[in-house]
Design brief:
- By secondary structure, this protein is of the alpha+beta class.
- It has helices at residues 27-41, 51-62, 67-77, 81-88, 110-128, 170-181, 198-205, 221-233, 240-253; strands at 102-107, 134-135, 141-146, 158-160, 163-165.
- Helix content is 43%, strand content 8%.
- A five-stranded mixed sheet has the order 2-3-1-4-5.
- Strand 4 and strand 5 form a beta hairpin.
- It binds FE2/S2 (inorganic) cluster.
């Protein structure tokens, strides 16, 4: 795939798939895809369940969900191309046009927005000269508005290829995208030591581990405050199923469990 389709996407053309995306895979690439797909399919009782990871596998090779990638998934999973396209166009992690090497998602949902996410979006969008779902002409950064990065306790939050950059400012995010475009290694706030490329991360999402899952911290300090308070005060979580079983048994015996029975 060439990079000719990078750059500003027309607002109405974001689903346009270049004609070249339907060119057949080279024999060695196709053989390798089939080998990997067989490993993915073997994880599921029904092979159609492997569609989501297989779409990530296609992205790990092509950088987005190509026409040939859709044909490949349909062929391997005995689905129609319409069924595969229906799934590929439903989830935002699947890209239907050439994607940048780094997807930078700026959260502009309520909490991040009021903590500065809208300002970050405005400034970074202007800095890069692109809008939502558009890619810089060098093919490095695809910018996205995100509806919650699932890290609200670190608002405002930006993600680069789904690695967290917590407590961001317009300046720190502009520095982040500049470093990514310059090819520098950038270190997320949590997780692995550096942000991997979109294709590399797509392969991990397809289920092929890169060995980085245990690198860096998972939960940051803000996420652990509640746990620390609970520990200080001796609070414990109700033990759901076991407590219900106790209660049921006690009722059968006509006894109180001695626990809150509300
Ligand atoms: S609102 Fe921004 S991470 Fe949840």
């Amino acid at each position: 795939m060439s990079g000719d389709n990078y750059g500003i996407q027309l607002a109405a053309g974001h689903l346009t798939v270049p004609a070249e995306s339907k060119e057949p895979y080279a024999a060695d690439v196709l053989a390798s895809l089939h080998e990997d797909a067989a490993l993915v399919v073997a994880r599921y009782p029904q092979k159609r369940s492997a569609l989501l990871p297989l779409l990530h596998l296609v992205q790990s090779v092509d950088g987005y969900v190509t026409g040939r990638g859709i044909d490949f998934c349909a062929d391997v999973l005995d689905l129609s191309t319409a069924e595969v396209s229906g799934v590929a166009t439903f989830y935002t992690q699947y890209k239907r046009h050439p994607n940048g090497e780094y997807t930078v998602g700026i959260c502009t949902n309520t909490l991040c927005a009021i903590m500065g996410g809208d300002q970050i979006w405005d400034e970074v969008s202007e800095h890069l000269g692109i809008g939502h779902d558009e890619t810089t002409p060098d093919g490095k950064v695809t910018l996205e508005r995100v509806e919650c990065n699932a890290a609200c306790d670190f608002a405002p939050v930006v993600m680069a290829n789904w690695e967290f950059f917590d407590n961001q400012t317009p300046e720190s995010t502009k520095a982040l995208v500049d470093d990514l475009r310059a090819g520098k290694d950038v270190k997320p706030s949590r997780g692995p030591d550096k942000v991997c490329s979109f294709k590399q991360v797509s392969r991990v999402l397809a289920g092929f581990h890169d060995g980085l899952a245990d690198q860096g911290v998972g939960a940051g300090p803000a996420s652990l405050v509640g746990l620390e308070i609970a520990n200080e005060r001796g609070w414990t979580a109700p033990d759901g199923g076991a407590a219900k079983a106790d209660k049921g048994a006690a009722k059968a015996d006509g006894k109180s469990t001695g626990k809150d029975e509300a």
